[in-house]
Write a structure and sequence with these properties.
Elements (H helix, E strand, L loop, with lengths): L1 H6 L2 H11 L9 H20 L11
Length: about 60
């Protein structure tokens, strides 16, 4: 959430939760939390390099 809040990407977290069929971060399994963290890092990397990952938010 720290990464999402720092970049105003909360909608990406909500979308991830919806795709997993859960309402809260606490409902995710450890592997799902790791996947979400990897995605957040991917968003940051894409934004920093000016690229867009295929299923990610557009680069800022």
């Amino acid at each position: 959430m720290h990464i999402a809040n720092a970049h105003n990407w909360q909608i990406a977290v909500r979308h991830f939760l919806m795709t997993k069929g859960v309402g809260y971060l606490s409902d995710l399994s450890d592997p799902q939390l790791d996947d979400l963290l990897d995605r957040m890092h991917g968003y940051v990397d894409a934004a920093e390099t000016g690229a867009s990952l295929p299923d990610c938010l557009p680069a800022s």
